[in-house]
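User: quick one, fold this
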Amino acid sequence: MRFGFSTAGESHGPGEVTLVHGVPAGLGLLAEDVDRDLARRQQGYGRGGRQKIEKDKVEFLGGVRHGYTLGSPVAMLVRNRDYANWEHRMSPAPVEDPPDPITLPRPGHADLAGMQKYAFDDLRNVLERSSARETTARVAAGGVAKKLLSDFGVEIHSAVYRIGTVAYPKERAVVDAARADESEVRCPDPEVSERMKEEIDAARYARDALGGEFVVVAHGCPPGLGSYVDWRDKVDARLAAAILSINAMKGVEFGMGFGLAAKRSSEVQDEILAENGHLARASNRLGGIEGGMTNGEPVVVSAAMKPISTIAKQLRTVDISTGEETKAFKERADSCAVPAAAVIGESMVAVVLAEAFLEKFGADNMTDIRAAHDSYARRLAEAGVAAR
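Assistant:
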């Protein structure tokens, strides 16, 4: 089975469940390999009260024994501590006194379309699964993918370069992404970070929320992940789909992204050079991907996130039970979730790259994968086409 994952669980249910398929046997994997990013996802200036309740830790339920994967699906659970406060409202079993249905859909959320699609009369049935709490399970899957890739020298970082109107040059964020965790907003520049925090404070005071932009950078990817042969194999298309599947994402770019459209071709292409008998690139404007394949340069993916839909300033809506105009339902939420979204972006990029990596080098066990990877690297080096 191809490397990938599925998730289950509701925001205020007992927990978030992740099932990772296609994990090769023999990968060293500990809980801390996953917990590290679970903790990073919960951090960030502008987060709401939920992060003070949850202390996300993973429990392996299957697929790992004595610190190594077995080749079977890796099953993980992250318990929701807040479930203790919601047990009656989220009980899987029928209750004698069910809570009143929520019928005030929030603009920008999945509420209304979800109620219409699934014939629900209570938007609680929609918001519990469409909540960004689900991304906890994605980050758990990303932890497995990151561990696999790191064994072959692939490292993934992210940085926030815009929150609201405050911005940091994206090209500098790409270079400095490894330092982003030093900032509460995950921006590598201290002065810009403070201005971003002021922007978040102003939005919170106005009972509003902010979006922004972040970049994910993957160093060490070998050339040839993905393929030009079939549209479904193009790694940039797969990365774009993965990023846009994250809550509130509205745009994705590679390298210079939309800025390339205003340039001439001679200003855009990453020229090929000969350096000490090997091929190299004069630039990385295309973000490490050509023809649907990695080219050996860092993979650079950036995303635009809209402000989250749940805010204290209730917007206009219609009560689905009465047809009357009113104000939208309000749930506890963040003022800004862009720093957390960047960590989730890392996880989704890792999952796609791990899938493409195992397609290229095999997927049964780490011994055979490493042999295939090393053989490929030797072939490129001997032919004089090793990546820089």
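User: anything notable?
Assistant: The CA atoms of residues 81 and 318 lie 33 Å apart.
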